[in-house]
Structure formats: structure tokens, C-alpha cells
Design a protein that fits this description.
Layout lengths: L5 E4 L3 H5 L12 H6 L13 H13 L4 H14 L1 H10 L1 H8 L3 H7 L1 H4 L6 E4 L6 H9 L6 E5 L16 H11 L6 E7 L5 H4 L14 H18 L4 E5 L3 H11 L5 E3 H21 L8 E4 L3 H18 L3 H5 L2 E5 L2 E2 L36 H8 L3 E4 L9 H9 L5 E4 L11 H7 L5 E4 L6 E2 L5 E2 L2 E2 L6 H10 L7 H13 L18 H18 L12 H8 L7 E4 L6
Parallel strand pairs: 1-16, 2-4, 3-4, 3-5, 5-6, 7-8, 7-10, 10-11, 11-12, 12-15
Antiparallel strand pairs: 8-9, 13-14
Helix pairs in contact: 3-5, 4-5, 4-7, 10-20, 14-15, 14-21, 17-18, 20-22, 21-22, 22-23
């Protein structure tokens, strides 16, 4: 058993009690209370961390709504990191939806009215001449492994929120990936907002100006990125909630010069790739054998298409043009194809556009568009993925049509929250006569099968992989988070699927096991970085597991020793 860590601390008295990194509250020992000037500042009884967690969960359960619980937990994090992370770790299934999706969206939508204190770095377009100075002031004397930045243009489900700090994402990296919270930084990039409600709100805390775009936007973002690259070249820079116009573009712009990551684009794609890799193992087929229909071609749908395409190239050896032919993308104009015209086929999706001659015998609607049902009837897909946020879009007719031509149809309704899912898992299982392989974007109960058995529905949750991808890149001090590193992480996740041992089990691991799963992902990513010469460390692959376990941050108090030259 590992010995309790010892920390040498220079803080005393009230300064120590108000520092969330080191505050123990009622858990300070008698020796620590004497050494740090805390006698008289705390009540007599000394509590264990277990007892503090019990008190905190009792207080949490007295809150009347998830938003109130979110606010309570944020307050707890502001006071005591170890207690906060220990509490949430013990109740992952219950509390991740409270601190993250979907409750965090509600908290961000009310950000200006709930605002109490600064909780990160706020960089505003009007103050861009002070970006470097502000950044250095915030990071002075700190090691930084992770920087999560957002311009808040596309918050899931609520759109443009102008200003809103991404602390929840950093917290997930710590909870599930083992990132040290003292080495993370959340940054809001305030470039204005096009949300009229916010612009007219006298309590709005952001810059009340129409959202900046074009060259001025790019210059501002680049100033920030270059400061990150200058001072923390081995950090992971995570882009969060950027709009569809900028998300993929910024990722492509910086991915070869820094370890950058966009969860909406790459995280969704990576966990879906892992899901599909596990599913095709069950069906005893290959990725390149699949005919993949993706309903919804925004950031998530397009990110999935690209990640699956890259997986097909890397694993099955197809070239890009051949791999692209496995995909059929559908957006608000129907099937993306050349015949729609330039105004209906965005540049970003053009590489997946289908040729007109494939569809000359398919009837279109009055606008020349081809809908999902006709695509399914024509293509006979083996994989149907939903990223549309259109609840019920995968109708009984569509699902039954798919099942006619696929022995084990792979159906992935990934839209969040559950009311926006394209199909209920139980319905999909009933309409395919129990043949479907399923994973969803939100947790669902097991499906009842006609033979009396239950089918476990996998949760295709980004949090099963992105904390591990980021931790692996940081661990290896990688100069970039390459496509091959992401695929290595997806492969490791797929290899842990319960369905590989029992076909009636889930095609992704249980979310409750996500900390252990992400550790495995991180190890695979770091090993790949070393193998391809992209790491900034001199270790061998065989050393990665030990290094990863050692680097993981744990929510434990340890023993404090007063040292005037110690940590602060």
C-alpha cells in the first residue's frame, strides 16, 4: 500500500483555509493545527475525508434542483479541491450530469446572473494588447499541463452564450483522466455575442457587442494561441464549444504546431470509432465493409465521419477517396450530393458529397432533396448514426428497412439529451427483432429481448476517451495530438468492450469504470507518441504505464509540514 504523501506548505492561518488546493477543513490533524496556526479557527472535532464526503452528500441532496446542486458543487470546489473531487468520484453516475452535460448548459445560460467570483482567465477582444501580460499574471510560478479555452459560440443545446468559463471540462479531465487541477487553466475568449437577449441584459458580464468574425477574429485567437505555444509548448490546448464555422478550421490550423484538441470534433469521433470497432468485431466484419449513414452533419456528425474515415484508412489500408465512399451524410437539405448546388453543400462536407449518377433513379422532393428513408432504401446501410437532435427521426419504417438488409444493424442515436435521441433503444431492438447493436449518447436502461434476456445499451460518451487522450498527450509531452495517437486510444477503448466477451453485453465499457478506462487510453496514446517519435520524453514504451500511474493526481489530503519555502 502506498504511503500517504507529504506536502511542504508555506501558507498559514486564514490564507491556508481559503486556498482550495490545500484546505482540509475539519480534517486538519492536531499537529497540523498547531503548526499552521489553526487552533481556534476550526471546531474541535477532526473528521476523516469519508465523514466530510458524507456531510457534503447530505447537504447536496437537500438541494431542490440540478442547477442548485451544480451551484453547491461549484462552491465546494472553490473551497476544497480534495473534498470536491473525492465526493464526485464516489458518485460519478449521479453527479457527472450535474457538473457537466446537461446541467452545466443551464448554469452557463445563467452565468451572468449566477456570477460570484472569477474562476479562470478572461481575455476580451478589446483588451487583446494585454493578452500576454494577462496570461503571465494568471500563470505566474505555475506548471500548466492543460488549457481549456472557449469562445462560447456553440454551447450544447443553447448556442451562443458570449462569455462562459469552461471549468466543467477541466474538472472532467481531473476526475476521469487524472489531470492535476493545479496544472489546468480555463480561458474564456470573449469576442462578443450575437445573442440579443444577452446584449439587452443589463447584468450581462461579457462584452456587449456583436460577435467579431473574419480576420479580426483570427488575429485575436492567434495572439492567444501563440502565447500558449511560447510559454507552455508541451501543454494540451483544448478548444471547447466553438461554432461550426471555426471548430474544424482552427483545429486544422494549429494541429501540426501544438497539441490541440476539439472534443466536439475529435472526441465524439474517437468514441464513436471505438464503438464501431467493437461492433464490427462482434459482427466479424471490417470497418471498410460498412456502409455508414450519418444523420446530422454539423460539428459532431462531420467529426465522426472524418474520424471513422481516418480509422478505415489507418486500419484497413484504403486511400482517402475510397474510404470517403463508405459514407452518406444527411443534413437539413437531405443527402449531401453534388446535385444540391454550391449553396446547399458547405465546403466542409464537400469531400463526402455523393455523385449525382448514383441517385438518378431516386425520386427527390419538391426542392430536389433526398431524405433519410430513401437513402436507407437505396444504400442498405450497416451503420446508422444520429447526430441531428431530432427526437424520433429513426422511425419504425426506417429501422425495419435497415434490418431487412443487415444481419446485425449497428444503430447509434447519439443526440443529447435523451429526449432528442433519434430512436429509443427498446424500440430499435423491437423493430430489428433483437438483432441490433446499440449505443446511445445518454444512459438508457437495458433492452428486454424476446428470449427473456437483457441487452446492455452502451453509452457512447466522449468522457470515456477524451480525458485519456489529453492525459496521454501531456504524459508524453507530445508536440501534437496526432490522428494516429487518437486512433491508438480508440483501439484501446474498443478492446475493453464487454461485448467482445458476451455479444449481449454493451459495445462500450460501463461509464462507471471511466477513470480506469481513461488510464488505459492515456497509456495507449503515450505509447503511440513514443513509437512515432512525437514525444518529448526519453522513456521507452515499456515505462509508460508506471509513469502514467505516478503522474495521476489523486484526491487525498496527505500530511502537511510547515516550510517557509514550501508550496503556496
Amino acid at each position: 500500500m502506498a504511503s500517504e504523501p507529504v506536502f511542504r506548505i508555506c501558507l498559514r492561518g486564514e490564507t491556508l483555509l481559503t486556498n482550495p488546493k490545500f484546505n482540509k477543513g475539519t480534517a486538519f490533524s492536531p499537529e497540523e493545527r498547531r503548526a499552521f496556526g489553526l487552533i481556534g479557527r476550526l471546531p474541535h472535532r477532526i473528521n476523516t475525508l469519508d465523514e466530510q464526503c458524507q456531510r457534503a452528500i447530505d447537504q447536496l441532496e437537500s438541494q431542490q434542483s440540478d442547477l442548485a446542486k451544480n451551484t453547491f458543487l461549484q462552491s465546494l470546489k472553490d473551497q476544497n479541491w480534495v473534498l470536491y473531487y473525492s465526493l464526485v468520484s464516489r458518485h460519478l453516475r449521479e453527479l457527472i450530469p450535474v457538473i457537466y452535460t446537461p446541467t452545466e448548459a443551464e448554469a452557463i445560460s445563467n452565468y451572468s446572473h449566477l456570477f460570484r467570483r472569477s474562476e479562470g482567465l478572461y481575455l476580451t477582444f478589446t483588451d487583446q494588447d494585454y493578452i500576454e501580460e494577462s496570461f503571465l499574471e494568471q500563470t505566474k510560478c505555475r506548471e500548466i499541463d492543460l488549457i481549456v479555452c472557449s469562445d462560447a459560440e456553440a454551447i450544447l443545446g443553447i448556442g451562443d452564450q458570449g462569455v462562459g468559463i469552461s471549468t466543467a471540462k477541466s474538472a472532467i479531465y481531473t476526475l476521469l483522466g487524472g489531470m492535476d487541477p493545479s496544472k489546468t487553466l480555463s480561458v474564456t475568449l470573449d469576442v462578443g455575442t450575437n445573442n440579443e437577449e444577452l446584449l439587452n441584459d443589463p447584468l450581462y458580464v461579457g462584452w456587449p457587442h456583436q460577435r467579431i468574425c473574419g480576420e479580426n477574429y483570427d488575429v485575436f485567437i492567434d495572439k492567444f494561441v501563440q502565447v500558449v505555444r511560447k510559454y507552455y509548448p508541451h501543454s494540451l490546448l483544448h478548444f471547447e464549444d466553438f461554432g461550426v464555422t471555426n471548430a474544424y478550421r482552427l483545429l486544422q490550423k494549429y494541429k501540426d504546431t501544438h497539441a490541440v484538441f476539439n472534443d466536439d470534433v475529435q472526441g465524439t469521433g474517437a468514441v464513436t470509432l471505438a464503438c464501431l470497432m467493437a461492433a464490427v468485431t462482434v459482427t466479424k466484419s471490417k470497418l471498410s465493409d460498412q456502409r455508414i449513414v450519418i444523420y446530422g452533419a454539423g460539428s459532431a456528425g462531420l467529426g465522426i465521419a472524418r474520424q471513422l474515415r481516418d480509422g478505415i484508412i489507418a486500419i484497413d489500408g484504403l486511400d482517402t477517396a475510397e474510404a470517403n465512399k463508405r459514407f452518406y451524410l444527411i443534413d437539413k437539405f437531405g443527402l449531401i450530393r453534388d446535385g444540391l448546388g454550391q449553396d446547399k453543400v458547405r465546403e466542409a462536407v464537400r469531400e463526402f458529397s455523393r455523385h449525382n449518377d448514383e441517385w438518378k433513379d431516386v425520386e427527390t422532393n419538391g426542392n430536389g432533396e433526398i431524405g433519410l428513408l430513401d437513402v436507407v432504401k437505396t444504400v442498405h446501410p450497416t451503420v446508422l448514426i444520429g447526430c441531428s437532435t431530432q427526437g424520433g427521426a429513426f422511425t419504425e419504417e426506417i429501422v425495419r428497412e435497415m434490418a431487412k438488409h443487415a444481419d446485425k444493424p449497428i444503430i447509434l442515436p447519439l443526440s443529447n439529451p435523451s429526449r432528442l435521441h433519434e430512436v429509443r433503444p427498446q424500440d430499435a431492438m423491437d423493430w430489428t427483432d433483437g438483432k441490433a447493436l446499440l449505443a446511445t449518447g445518454s444512459p438508457f436502461p437495458p433492452c428486454k429481448l424476446s428470449n427473456g434476456k437483457e441487452y446492455m445499451v452502451g453509452e457512447c460518451n466522449n468522457a470515456l476517451i477524451y480525458p485519456g487522450l489529453g492525459f496521454g498527450a501531456v504524459l508524453a509531452q507530445s508536440r501534437a495530438l496526432t490522428d494516429t495517437m487518437i486512433i491508438a486510444g480508440a483501439r484501446r477503448l474498443a478492446s475493453l468492450a464487454p461485448a467482445l466477451q458476451n455479444p449481449d453485453d454493451a459495445i462500450l465499457p460501463d461509464f462507471g469504470d471511466s477513470p480506469a478506462i481513461n488510464l488505459e487510453v492515456a497509456i495507449a496514446v503515450a505509447e503511440q507518441a513514443i513509437e512515432e517519435g512525437n514525444a518529448g520524453v526519453s522513456w521507452k514504451k515499456e515505462e509508460v504505464r508506471e509513469k502514467a500511474i505516478r503522474k495521476q493526481w489523486k484526491a487525498v489530503y496527505g500530511t502537511y509540514v510547515f516550510d517557509p519555502n514550501g508550496e503556496k
